[in-house]
Amino acid sequence: MLTFDARVDARGFDLALDVAEGETVAILGPNGAGKSTLLSLISGLLRADEGSAALGSTVLFDQPGASRAGSRAESRGRPGTAAWLAPHLRGVALLSQEALLFPHLSVLDNVAFGPRSAGVSTTAARATAREWLAEVEASDLADRRPSQLSGGQAQRVAIARALAANPRLLLLDEPLAALDIAVAPALRRMLRRVLVGRTAIVVTHEVLDAVTFADRVVVMSRGQILEQGTTHDVLERPRHPFTAQLAGLNLLTGMRTAAGMRTDAGVEIAAGPSDLAEGIAVAAAVRPGAVAVLRDGSPEPGAGVIEVVVTDLEPRGDVVRVRAGELSADVPPARIAQLDLVPGDSVRFALRPDDVELYAR
After folding, report:
1. How far apart are CA 94 and CA 39, in angstroms?
2. 320 phi and psi angles, rounded to 5 deg
3. Where are the domains of the chain?
4. N or C end of the chain, less CB within 10 A?
5. What is the pLDDT of residues 200-231, one digit of tens each?
6. pTM summary value
């Protein structure tokens, strides 16, 4: 199990996170959220100003500070003296966007490098390397040099090299970001298979990666956690606009009323059946495809109506996404032509009660 609680003043980073044994956690967030800072602190590439981290009983670092009298280190009975474990002793493997293979070694010896560094014999290390090359479906690449590999092939080898070292914790920093769109699906399927039962943190911009790999999702912004929970709960019931945007949903927030909710902007929206008590803070995530766009005429009986101004029209396959600030609706192109929509137009977004499912914030 990883326990982490650290601060880096210059980066505005102040975050506490636990990762259970055998759990894969996906870290989502915009550029500058602190995702790479988190991985750098855990792997030992960056030192914290204050805080601690431990992997099981192994202390990765412990940097006491006056502002954390109740730090995790003290709560575990450790003395308040500074400690910092060298990266190669942490049992942590970091896989970045770029494969970063050793150019002078064959693929086989690249993958065998981790076991060899741990003192394993050349024969045994190469046997382990062959096992992991087979696991990532790259056995036929064993005799090649990195310069002879495609991007997808190199990333497979890099994954095999990281796993061959038998790390206690695997850190993946946007592992599919640098790959061609045609290559990424196969790598995603392979990663899903090899991450089962492994303690790992995956930093990604792609919701699909979180859905494919993760047991739990953590959403970060400006060095702090916005929200976290199971992958299903976070992506189906977001509580922050950024998370809703990642999941492709409209997020409405407000107070529970007898008929549904009163949004923070004061708009009354009818909702489906709910056991939530009146007066509590609630949210609703609504699919853009469930939003009707009206210029004239009346909405369906009982539908909630929000007055909006169109900010953008975005083609998305067989629909056009009508954006109005943080809200959006997906409508057929023929409907766009019928409405004669252009950015700047004032329209109404209509929501049927059955499409508005309330949950507590």
Report:
1. 8
2. -115, 130
3. 2-236, 249-360
4. C
5. 999 988 888 888 889 999 999 999 999 999 99
6. 0.83
